[in-house]
Amino acid sequence: MRSPALRHVITHLITPLLMCIGMGLAYMGAFVTPEPHHLPVAVVGSGPQAKVFAQTVKDKAGDRLDVRTVATRSEAVGLLDSRDITGAYVPSAKTPELVVASAASDMDATAVEKVFTPIAAGQGVALKVTDVAAPVDDDPTGQGLFFLLIALSIGSYASVAALGAAGAGLPIRLRALLALGVSAVVSGIGALLAGPVFHLAHHDLASLWGMAWLYSAGILFVGVGLHTFLKRWTTLAMMVLFVMLNFTSSGGLFRPDLQNGFFGTLHAFWNGAGFVEGARSLLYFHSDGLSRNVWTLTAWLLLGLVVTAIAAAYERARGRAETPVAAAAAVRTAEEQKPGLKAEEEAEEEVEETVGV
Questions:
Q1: For 77-132, where are the E strands, in sequence order?
Q2: pLDDT band for position 321 (50/70/90)?
Q3: Residues contacting residue 269 through CB under 8 Å, at least 6 positions apart
Q4: Contact criterion met (CB below 8 Å) for 204 and 182
């Protein structure tokens, strides 16, 4: 290719085209065909009749449902609070009841209702649905936390471009301190959105801010460290890690039992799932399971600190390898100043690409 300008444009088109492929595969693979996949439900009752009924439901559903029996309704509610099941069916000749906790997942509650409504209708009675953990009225679908996750993610990974590219001339120690400050600002914005602005969190807003800070800081430190090695390809790497794989496995729209095994596996340890499930635990389920989600976010922050420490060691080693003669020659002629200008232009392009996405 003879034209350097054309080659330069085509090279920069690689990133958005790869993003197009990746986003299509990730989002369509995760969200287009949600189907129950070992959806855990319970039938309330301890006698042989309840066990036979549960086995009948299981046989008809196949792999779509995992059916267990529990002795009492209160035991079923406890399993809903710990999110070990998505719904509990209480058989009755006159008023059968389905108990759900839609704050855990509105989609799961809907899927369970679709399973048991025809069963009640077949008995000639209406199904009573009781929601023991409904989202707040300001967030009726319970998906506000997912959109909060998106806001925190964009603020975090877009800031990586500014810190890594525009701040490339700064010592990595200073870039790390800036990442610390930016994470506090991003999480503060998230807390304002979740509290005073959209009223997603009616209590424990300070704790929600703490989780948002852990989440944001983890992304920023991973990005600052990666930028030392990936340069302008950091944008693509951050999109893969914290958008394509992150949003799709977070459980914000569909929990793992409505997705295929790949995204369900990621849900167990990815940072977006840690934030969304931790926020649900905090706001709706009496902090049940919160510590595990906080540890997930902490592990990602520790990973980011390790990556940044490795990058710092690499930059120090590279700095010692540069000779004073080479440094003096780099500023002696105009021709040798052009790579510096080119680097500055690429830094600006990287920031524009990231923010634009």
A1: 87-90, 97-100, 128-131
A2: confident
A3: 296, 299
A4: no
Write the CB contacts of 162 (distance below 8 Å, at least 6 apart in sequence): 351
Whether the pTM exceeds 0.85: the reply is: yes
Long-range (24+ apart) CB contacts under 8 A made by 206-214 are 207/282, 208/279, 208/282, 208/283, 211/275, 211/278, 211/279, 211/282, 211/293, 211/294, 211/297, 212/148, 212/152, 212/186, 212/187, 212/275, 213/183, 213/184, 213/187, 214/294, 214/297, 214/298, 214/300, 214/301
Q: Which residues of 331-356 are buried (b: 16+ CB within 10 A; e: fewer)?
A: eeeeeeeeeeeeeeebbebbbebbee
Residue pLDDT, tens place only, 222-236? 999 999 999 888 989
Find the mean pLDDT for residues 263-268: 92
